[in-house]
Amino acid sequence: MSEKKKKVLFILFYCLSAASALLVLIKGFLPNPNAVWLFVFLSAAFFLSASGFLAAYLAGKRGKKDGGKAAVPVAETDDYSAFVDWWTNCNAEEIKGNSLLLGAYQIMCCYNEVCNGGFGQLWDFAESDGWDLPRTEKLFQWLLPKGTSELFSAALQARGRGEDCERFNRDFDYDGMEKKVLPDLATRVANNYKYKRTLTEFDLIEGIAPYLKERGYKKQNKRWKKNVGGFTLVFYIQGSVYDKDDYYIRPGIVIENAPAVGDYYGHFMTELKQRNVEQVIADYEAFVRQWTDKTLIKRRLSEFLIWEARNPLEKRRALSEKAKKGEDPYEKDPIPDGGTMFFRIGESTRNYILENFPAE
User: Fold this and answer.
1) Residue 192 bridge partners (DSSP)
2) For 170, which DSSP code?
3) Is 29 strand, coil or helix?
4) In angstroms, what is the C-alpha Rg of the chain?
5) Cα separation of 130 and 93, whole Å?
6) How many other β-carbons are positioned within 10 Å of the β-carbon of residue 117?
7) For residue 322, what pLDDT is reported?
8) Fewest CB atoms less than 10 Å from the CB: which of 9, 20, 163, 283?
9) Around Cβ 258, how many Cβ atoms within 10 Å?
10) Running along the chain, 360 residues long, what does each successive block of 10 average in pLDDT?
11) What span, in angstroms and rounded, lies between the C-alpha atoms of 179 and 175?
């Protein structure tokens, strides 16, 4: 039963109890002694019912802080204990900019409310806590197993049609949530704080996808491409094989008609820092401006080739020992601006640039 129903029934039975008691107290209203005792009995019965619904309502409200079933998982770990403490004291306003933290907080709330009172109670809580339910649905699709997120979506649609959602309670995967989903989320939240991540991959994609789409990029998985001025621009988000919440922003540029490059990124590539979306866009635009300027590319290549002649491969290999010690091997003869980009392209591509790109 939802918290709203418990509250309404408490008020109803309390009013009936008070009305019955009032009738008993009004002199002459109940001249028959049997009627007096009947209303005394009804007043007491209504009062006890009201007390029961009040206790149930208060217990449900305390469930979020006391943890209810959610506070004692079977697969308890140190990360999970810290996660429960974090969730109990969490201010949703402070984490709304981080989709992993907000999603984890709302999933824990969902589990707690469904355990204590079902989906009806969850909607009451979500409304009082100011959830943006369409966004919550997206977060659940990202963070929850497919079956659980689909159940949430079905219950949310039923709510939108004004239907009773209690039938969804029996299909909720209590065991899977307790043993697998929540402990996994606990670890992911712990890692988010450990590695001081401020921009999740989910938030980056949500922010960058409209920007790229408006500019004519075509999307394939987490790779966006666009042809412009003799180049193919590539914006690529690469996931980590070691941590599902870690990723790399690795844009690249392919020179059209140049000899094929031997890797996935392009002839030129860089790795952008995980800042905010606006800064990622600014860094990406700066990269594109520099590495689609054919005159600038040719000048930089010419400067690099002069430097490379002074620092052939054999010399660079000998200097690599300095790099292993954390020293700058080229301190006395620094690599020209942008020169590191040309280490990755072969002689045929270099010749193509020198022969086809305009000089200043």
Assistant:
1) none
2) G
3) coil
4) 32
5) 10
6) 26
7) 72
8) 163
9) 19
10) 61 78 68 71 77 65 45 58 90 92 96 92 94 96 96 96 93 93 94 91 96 96 94 96 93 94 86 94 97 97 96 83 76 91 93 94
11) 6
